[in-house]
């Protein structure tokens, strides 16, 4: 539909979710939040979808919450109350999510980038935790951002609100890669293709594994991890992968080109 702010399409096992509200720098308005959440649900529930790409139109990935909608609203009516759901959908998606940034992200936009499994941006993309400069705090997004950032960088950037570039974002753990604009699509497509090669259940379980609290020592975790590993070796998906390896063919979960 011409008036939608988030587009959704699926091809070759990849669901592409595109933020398309360039008039307000893809700000997280009520309509965009609703459509984005619906698109993430579609991707989660569609067995044909193996991987999700989160991208955008216009020069800005996402400017954060729509401040026009926030103006004059009480605490119970603020749009930020709906934002944790979106961050959780990205963070807990059983299908890996790759963020493609051809432009800047601010505040809540960075929270979404951090919630994705892999993020790639162009050198021209800039970032800022601008909340303190308008008298608010990066509370909600801290839950996805802080696990990614080094502690020193988090203190500096959360407290100052200063702008930093994509190169710095890679250095502190926010991005996986910073590539020239002409290489952005090729790089993102490389990540997406690699992710479609993994078993769907194995990918979902590996995401859960990455999110688990670490035991104090390896010995404390070996029993649980061994049971988990052995279960996957014996599973239908694991046996298909082993057979495919032996027969020098692609497993049956790899999407057809």
TrEMBL record:
Transmembrane segments: none annotated. Keywords: Isomerase. Gene3D superfamilies: 2-enoyl-CoA Hydratase, Chain A, domain 1, Lyase 2-enoyl-coa Hydratase, Chain A, domain 2. InterPro entries: ClpP/crotonase-like_dom_sf (IPR029045), Enoyl-CoA_hydra/iso (IPR001753), Enoyl-CoA_hydra_C (IPR014748), Enoyl-CoA_Hydratase/Isomerase (IPR051683). One of its GO terms (molecular function) is isomerase activity. It holds the Pfam family ECH_1. Belongs to the enoyl-CoA hydratase/isomerase family. PANTHER family: ENOYL-COA HYDRATASE (PTHR42964), POLYKETIDE BIOSYNTHESIS ENOYL-COA HYDRATASE PKSH-RELATED (PTHR42964:SF1). This is Enoyl-CoA hydratase/isomerase family protein. It comes from Amycolatopsis dendrobii.
